Amino acid sequence: MLLAELSWPAVNALSRDVLVVLPIAALEQHGPHLPLFTDSFLVGEVARRANEALGGRVLFAPVTWLGNSHHHLDFAGTMTAAPRVYLDMLRTMIDCVLTHGFKRIVLLNGHGGNNVPGQQVLYEARQHHRDRKDLLLLLANYWALGSDPAKTIPGLQHKIEHACQWETSMMMHLRPDLVGGYKSTAKVEWGNPFQPATRAWTMPDVSPEGHVGEPALATAGIGEALLEAFAADAVAFLTRVIEWDGRSWNG
Can you give the pTM of this predicted structure? Predict the structure, then answer.
């Protein structure tokens, strides 16, 4: 079900055990070869496929395209919410869903920069409602829900990065008209930025062109295989949430 297409009485008539999915993404630079809306296009497609597979069992909100993208601001076109504003925006969205009586919420994330604020918001919301035993508040990255595509898709590099082979391939399948000169885009390694510590960074620290990985290896076939795998992962994960008994720790 698509929240944007329902009337308020139709939403009001739903069981409050219905899972509500809030897809979150970004509008930010994706190297010299991909559109700014890449993250939003991709999580939107995963959500679309999951909605088709799950029918009326899940309520999907529209993609929230404004994300936490300050680390990309050196590149023209990037739009971002200030960090605290982003936290407040996500918290308000969750509070709206809770106000309407729903109890199961998944932030389906399409942008790595949303991870830390998304986790913080869920932590804050759960502490605010600490006496509630019927709430299930989750954040899930669509690319990390169980499968390992690098083991099953021929020619795929070992991990997803930024404007990399993976994202470029998915965009080549989804919107090839928006993919530019990826074949001439040089490989950029993430390297070892003082791991296992976590280093504060902006994208120019890593890559002057704004990408990490090897987009020249992308193909539309790899992109379709990735989207199929990620959508299946999302369906399996959301089904676990649907089947939660409403009280247990494990799911």
Answer: 0.95
